[in-house]
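Figure S7 source data.
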Amino acid sequence: MFQFKEIIGQEDVKSSLITQVNSGKLHHAHLFLGKMGYGTFQLAMAFVKYIYCQDKQVNDSCGQCANCIKISKLNHIDIHCTVPSFDINNLSKSLLPNYREIIEEKQGLFDLKDWIDFNKEKNAKIRSAECDIILHDMGLSSYEDGYKTQIIWMAESLEKESNKILKILEEPNPQTLFILMAESSDRLLPTILSRCNIHKILPLKDNMVERYLIDIRHHKPSETLTRAIHFAEGDLIEAERYLADEESEFPLELSLINFLRGLINFHERKFDNVNKAIKQAEVLAGQSKSTQKKFLDYFQYFLRQVIMIKITQNSQLNETLLKAAHHFANTLEIDQIEAWSQLIDKYHYAIEGNANVKISFVSLAIESGKIQNRVEFENLVSQFSQ
Ligand SMILES: [Zn+2]
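Tokens for the predicted zinc ion complex:
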């Protein structure tokens, strides 16, 4: 594992990394920036392996020397790994066996959601105590002859704690390397960004995603596969998730019904209703991004049917959803339904952009509730038009 030749596409990044190693002028801090589904983790690890390889080939590590073997098992004494953890008593060092396991299971293609699910947890972050360990580890000299390396996976989980490691990033000890990986730069401090050599990892082309799904994951060409490729937008993890969702059939209809049940009379501030909508928002937050987007698409479809009912009294909805649709058709004006539809678009966009999904769905519930109250809705409209 962790060789350039195994990574799909990303030829430009590969060759720039290889050139940098061979030039002998290695920058001491690197940030690999891009979705894990683009191959970000794999590229970073192949880079580390190439640096340490004792029998470097022209454009890849040998895969067989002692260092290559140790790095494949994430078991090199001079390479430290920091990953988001779940509680203060189990930091990266004790999570390492799980980390090795998920790498093996997912062949290096996994993201934070996979990591959290793998550990059957809910939230993960890189804690302040972890930064103290980084400072300690990176302050020591290397055991073997060569570099001492600190890998920080999902560096955006550091948030403000990253202040602690700024100094060591700026004035590192000789022969030390920092390899940071992040999916988005939004939550990284500018001071961190400015100290790193940034390798931007771009989405893969559709034909690359197709090659991966068919040649490596052994999916058969089909209409669903084509949709998955289109949906994934260059992200191998999302493409696989889409296909898995198709098989698991997340109950979109039931999920929408539960969400709507919470919203009916939401504006009356009945605690029970508010609670129902928030509970369903939590269920949705736990789904894959593709399922979340499908849910919002389905919601839009439902609203179009509500408008149909208002205008023609007809709709294509089945009985359960029809009842809810009639309720909204009777209580809402067209402008309110349109505002609702725009709201869904807004959250569709937010989820796409890696917003906090749970907060997004809860806000969607609350704002949808507000739109239903005519007086509150009109206040909102007049605020915007001022
Ligand atoms: Zn080697």
